[in-house]
Design brief:
The structure holds 2 protein chains of 2 kinds. Chain A has helices at residues 2-32, 39-54, 59-82, 90-112, 137-159, 161-171, 173-178, 183-209, 219-229, 234-259, 266-278; strands spanning 128-130, 133-135. By secondary structure, chain A is mainly α.
């Protein structure tokens, strides 16, 4: 029993780390209605930049410099990629983010190279024992950070004037423009926030795996979370992250041996399909009613 | 304006006329074309660029020394990004240029090219990757796996584990976890390990890791907390090689009880894991470091002239040196072909003969300046593996340190399995295995 609890807790903690990546997708979608295919690449770029700046600055200054870079990137994306696509179909914006992803990969590789790099942010990875349960300190720190970020973002989108403006932009670009919401600023802000989330995810995942090209692949882990939680729900991302993390771990350990193992990637998708059957917009996704 | 236009047309006509009239300069140096299917981009770029860079640097060194018997290499990169479809496209693109051989540099691309290479009569050389049963030249006349294959490596690993435990008899009752990426490359050694577990009385359980293997928490909890493994085999690739080291440290599993496949035994695999990697063992089939005369020569001549194909900081690393060994082996094969067919650019068919008659002795290795960098290789028409020697190394926190001497695989056992598997493949594909009569 203790083993099962340990497996579940381990899954919940890693699930929160997945949520960090999923949050980036949600933020962009929530504020601009775009599914940002480049989110994984933004995470990689942020982590690469941080490691690059660490060779010059101390940790806090390197984080700040990486954040400034991500904000500058957001402004550039708005000006160069998104602005020409105002009022175009969402599919055009989606395609643009695919291209953007490749571009960011190339830029990151060109500047910082392809060698994997270690990233030590000073959080111990030695687990501690509570009543026979092994709990990772690093994962706990990651969970706390992600939790804090979610609370801050929920407040921002629900309570702040800018947050509400971003939600309006997500609903309808042109309608938002017609009531005086500056679309360019709104997009730049939402991409900058997604850049911040990418940086946090890059720091946490980079410390776990090392900063290497494969960081861009963690976006794959975010997809079932988005389906489960709803692509436009911030609390949905965190709750679905917990569900995905715990369920994939438990499935791998307890069901895996009966079916040959290696089911932890496929299982969350199965779960997502079941949820979609009953809730087509995900557990917390907003139901969109369109007039025909 | 009109005059300029007329002059331009006349100039073009002159080029066309002289271009078609004059034969190529007979004194022009001949070149041996070598396509390099490489991946300098994507998640596996450290491996692709490392091996590719070392291989190209060795060819550059030979060029700087006047070429192979006077014939210079003309190497050309084709970026695959470790993507099978792109690899096949690269193959089709370079094929019309009559390459003497192809290194697919990926197990997936190797599988995709096996039939094509037979049809096109181009030897496919996959050093330390691809399918192990291709070591059987009777069924795979155009495929070469030297200096060793995955099955030889696994028998050497079991011998290594036994050595660490105090003898082959100590294997009895041991629990070995085979943690592998869940793709054909990862699955390839499962049957062999199962057979060996029956032979030596140890227990083996497989823990597949779904691609790309970023998170292995569930597998490691199972391995350490429920299965209580004594040893873990780390058979992954790229980031999935690094993750086990962090997870093992987190659960307090000793790193000197993990032994990795040679594709999980590079600096790029351990450095991102930081102190968690200290003590970890891995297999290898080449030496590490810059203390080899041939590597020193590359640094001095190739990098001294600014002609290196990789950052100099990576010269001497595991992947880089593996690339140099690739370059040496292929260069020796071309020299073998020259002895038989004369000094000229070698064709695919001539290269196959050379690859089946390759004999890189210890004396020759010393002469090249690669003593300790590579094992001797001796192939035949039947045996395309050529020795199967494996080496082990341990990460001391800063660098890889060789552990013991080169380990011989369980040759008879491996050969038996190779032939059985190749025969099954031949039956499936309707291939009639070659006999010695066919060579006459």
């Amino acid at each position: 029993m203790i083993f099962a609890i340990e497996v579940a807790i381990g899954g919940l903690l890693v699930g929160v780390m997945y949520s960090l990546v999923a949050l980036g997708f949600v933020l962009i979608y929530k504020s601009s209605g775009v599914f940002n295919f480049a989110q994984g690449d933004m995470t990689l770029l942020a982590a690469l930049a941080l490691v690059g700046f660490l060779t010059i600055f101390p940790l806090w200054l390197a984080i700040l410099a990486a954040l400034v870079l991500m904000i500058a990137l957001a402004i550039a994306i708005e000006a160069i990629v998104l602005r020409p696509l105002v009022a175009r179909p969402p599919l055009a914006l989606f395609m643009a983010t695919i291209g953007l992803g490749f571009f960011l990969q190339g830029i990151g590789q060109g500047i910082w190279g392809t060698d994997p790099k270690g990233l030590d942010i000073g959080i111990s990875d030695i687990p501690f024992k509570i009543k026979g349960l092994l709990i990772s300190q690093f994962d706990l720190a990651g969970g706390a950070l992600a939790g804090g970020l979610v609370f801050a973002l929920v407040w921002f989108f629900q309570k702040s004037r800018t947050g509400r403006a971003l939600r309006a932009v997500s609903d309808d670009h042109e309608a938002a423009l017609s009531v005086g919401i500056p679309l360019r600023r709104a997009w730049a802000i939402s991409w900058a926030i997604a850049g911040l989330v990418a940086l946090v995810a890059g720091i946490m995942w980079g410390s776990r795996l090392g900063v290497q090209f494969s960081l861009s692949l963690i976006a794959l882990k975010a997809l079932p979370i988005l389906i489960l939680g709803g692509i436009d729900s911030i609390p949905g991302a965190i709750i679905a992250g917990l569900v995905v993390g715990a369920s994939e771990n438990l499935a791998e350990v307890f069901l895996g041996p009966y079916v040959g193992g290696g089911i932890q990637t496929f299982f969350p998708y199965l779960l997502a399909l079941v949820v979609l059957w009953f809730k087509p917009y995900g557990m917390f996704g907003r139901e969109i009613i369109e007039r025909v | 304006m009109g005059r300029c236009k007329n002059t331009g047309v006349a100039f073009l006509l002159l080029i066309l006329v002289f271009g078609f009239t004059f034969p190529p300069n007979p004194g022009q140096a001949q070149e041996q074309y070598v396509p390099c299917l490489i991946y300098r981009t994507g998640p596996f770029a450290p491996g692709g660029s490392g091996v590719g860079g070392g291989w190209e640097d060795y060819m550059e060194l030979i060029n700087m020394k006047g070429g192979v018997n006077g014939i210079k290499y003309k190497y050309e990169e084709c970026e695959t990004a470790y993507d099978t479809a792109r690899g096949v496209e690269c193959y089709e693109r370079v094929k019309p240029k009559n390459p003497a051989y192809i290194h697919p540099m990926s197990t997936g691309i190797t599988y995709a090219l096996l039939d094509r290479s037979v049809r096109d009569k181009i030897p496919l050389v996959f050093m330390g990757y691809g399918r192990a049963d291709a070591s059987d030249g009777q069924v795979f006349p155009w495929a070469f796996t030297f200096p060793t294959n995955y099955w030889s490596q696994n028998t050497a690993k079991i011998k290594f584990i036994a050595q660490q435990m105090g003898g082959m008899d100590k294997l009895k009752g041991l629990k070995i976890a085979n943690l592998h990426i869940d793709i054909p490359y990862g699955q390839e050694t499962r049957p062999l390990l199962e057979k060996m577990s029956k032979m030596y009385g140890f227990e083996v359980r497989h823990f597949p890791v779904p691609w790309p293997g970023i998170d292995q928490k569930a597998q490691w909890m199972d391995i350490v907390r429920r299965y209580n493994a004594d040893w873990v085999i780390n058979r992954n690739w790229g980031v999935s090689c690094t993750v086990p080291l962090r997870e093992a440290a987190r659960l307090g599993f000793p790193r000197d009880r993990i032994v990795g496949v040679w594709w999980c035994g590079s600096e790029e695999d351990v450095l991102p894991a930081g102190p968690a990697a200290k003590g970890y063992y891995s297999a290898n089939f080449n030496g590490v470091g810059q203390d080899f005369p041939v590597i020193q020569e590359i640094i001095e001549k190739v990098y001294g002239a600014g002609k290196g194909n990789l950052s100099i900081t990576r010269v001497g690393t595991v992947f880089y040196n593996r690339g140099v060994v690739t370059g040496i082996a292929m260069d020796e094969a071309i020299r073998t072909a020259h002895k038989k067919f004369g000094v000229k650019p070698v064709t695919g068919e001539e290269m196959r003969w050379a690859l089946e008659n390759l004999n890189i002795t210890e004396e020759r290795i010393k002469e090249i300046g690669a003593e300790g960098l590579m094992p001797p290789i001796k192939t035949s028409w039947k045996d395309h593996e050529g020795g199967g020697w494996v080496r082990f190394q341990q990460w001391d926190g800063q660098k890889w340190v060789p552990v013991g001497a080169w380990v011989a695989p369980m040759r008879e056992f491996v050969r038996e399995e190779v032939e059985k598997s190749a025969a099954k493949y031949a039956k499936e594909k309707g291939i009639t295995p070659r006999t010695s009569e066919a060579l006459k």
